[in-house]
Protein 1
Amino acid sequence: MNNIIGLLIIAAGSFGQSSSYVPINKVKDWSWESFWLVQGIFAWIVFPLAGAFLAVPEGASLWQILTSDPEAALTAMGYGVLWGVGGLTFGLSMRYLGVAMGQSISLGTCAAFGTLFPAIAAGTDLFHGDGLILLLGVCITIAGIAVIGYAGSLRSKNLSSEQKSRAVKEFALTKGLAVALLAGVMSACFALGLAAGPVVEDSPALFKTLPATFLVTIGGFLTNAAYCLFQNARHRTFSDYARTAVLPGNLFFCALAGLLWYTQFFGLGIGTGFFDRDSVLYAFAWCILMSLNVAFSNVWGLILKEWKGVTAKTAAVLVAGLAILIFSLVFPNLF
């Protein structure tokens, strides 16, 4: 029962993350770099900070927790800087491929590397016992992502230039795939940052990872803020922030997007608290989160009509890829 509760909580957080890019479509008269920076303030600073306070034991302070192990804190932030590159290119992947395909490729790659990197760092034998189950689960996830990617390539071939433009204004398959793969590899550093961050032994089990999450997102914010401010200067778009007519609405939608984005890691921290720390399911939790993100992002892709006009074959391939991803979620529970 605890495993089911944990999975449901992770699924709820995943749905929030996959929905986070919908409010961004409501942002008006701002350049890409402007809304990406503002939503990042909420997604990577405001809400992770609020979540980190939940892990503070009575009589302690968040500052004490974050500085209790300076080396661990700096390592987590360093991985966050690398993850920030992934977060930045993640946004670009959806710009060129759309919500469905962009998230599928990026998150699928992130799922594989984000699960295997910590396991390898911990000395897990991936060819025997629980390690082999973990490796097989990751392989199933990659297979599902590959099938979804194939569906995306079929869509690209079958749609006219006009149809592509209506679905995704800046659709560019080759550029998008390169950016999405880079985003996935670099985004896996988030999982490494969580593993390297300080552990709060006295905090409730459900909130233990939230301070480390905050440290990682700080690092990621630094990367994204530097790039966005550079683009503001380059494109002369600092005036976006002074457009008072659209400022209240844009701030609201950026805050909503940031909150929804953060729910994935809040849900991951809460959900894994219900798992046995020595179980395969616990080690596979990152892969589960990313798989669910892919599944829900494709649901949004269907809602947003990004797959409108594709052939029956393309639709069948997409459904098959989603089915493989769903199977990857239950695979660790079969043993």
Protein 2
Amino acid sequence: MSLEQLADAYRFGNNRETVLAVASGISPSEIGEHGTTAVHIAAENVDPETLELLLSNGHRAGSTDEYGRTPLHILAIQRWEGRVSKMAECTDLLLSHRCPPSRRDDSGRCFYHIAADMHNFPMIAIIGQRKVRCDALIESSGMNALHLLCEGASRYDYIRESRPQEFVEKDSMCRKMAEWLVGCGIDPEAETRIGRRAIDFAIENRIKITSAFLGGDGSVVSGGMDLPQAVIVNDPEAIAAIIGSGADPDALCDEKGDYFGMTPLMIACRRMALESAEALISGGASGTCTRGTDGTTALYHLLKSLSSTVGTGPNGRDSQRLLRMLDSVVTAQGDVDLPVSEDAGSALCFVCGEDRLGSTSDGKPVRTIAFDRLLSRGADVDARDGRGMTPLIRACGVPGCESENIVCTLLEMDADFDARDGDGMTAVMQAASIPRDGGLDIVKTLFDMCGPDLSVRDSKGRDALEIAADSDSKGVLSFLMDRR
């Protein structure tokens, strides 16, 4: 009998007697392609009866193939649903016959790394019952079996919303496997080479029953998370529970990374996490807090959220969601004209002077959406930023149709068209300073709707015509000379 015949017996669905008869005739010394043994083949088919026969006939449980895999490695990757008892029995047999649990394959994995990664519940159960030492790390990443278990929970994300009860059952299963692995010597606080713990993976994948166990927190609602973590996964229920337990809703995030020094509300705004933002505001979070490193507020991070890939999340990003968040944050802020950063001035000043705020998922520009909403909330059209620029002056410095529309609206609302910034620049000067006639249409709009004073000079002694000449704006210069 040969290994090929044994593989064929499984492949063609031969009856039990045939499989056992073929297996009994195979020599323990026979090795097939890629170093495969009969024990490997029986393990691949999760067949405890044949395994027991082979092992009792002198076949080695710990033989390795050309890839360094023992039968336990092969067993670990097999589907176990529907054959729980067979998977457990095969694992127990191989361990009882001294298949070495610490043997690594060519990728550096022990069998229990694979079992944890694959969420092989019956195999992990046997590991836990036997107290197999599982604290070895995967060399390339520094991950242990517990890290892999929690990271692998991402495979259940697709059922979290559609089949929540099934997701809870998977979470409970992960929690039990985590308990077994901790009992096998794995430190739940151990970090990977990039500083991540098992609980970090569990929180990321929203397995709250598991993360509550790993965090030593009895509350499954909060799942062992702190406020920034709950915001990142957009879990309003956890946010309410954490704040209810006494957490400061405005505490700054002290984890190094994209969110360092930000309040939970800032993080929610940067990620467009509407539910989290509303839960934080309901829990007392303030919109007036500033980030220590740059003086930015939650409103600033909301306005920038769609123009940056930093810290973005999978949350909805349509215009209605943006408007709801903007209204919530402005209400929490209390004053629509508070500076959004140290230099940018009010939110209206900021959006008027920014041409790269991105677009919502339904194709609407954030700049226009925010501009209209801020005006409807009573924003001051003559507010000043850190350089003394008004919304009109800032808008006149950005070329394009969107700026023209903003300029028209501001002028219709009686914005001061002759106001001067800290450098003595007026709105028309700012438009004239855009290189190569980029501000020509804005200059024309200003003259269509008002009569800018062309005799005014900036702090360098230049009037609008001289500024146009300096910016190589021949069309603007010609237009202004005709109206001098």
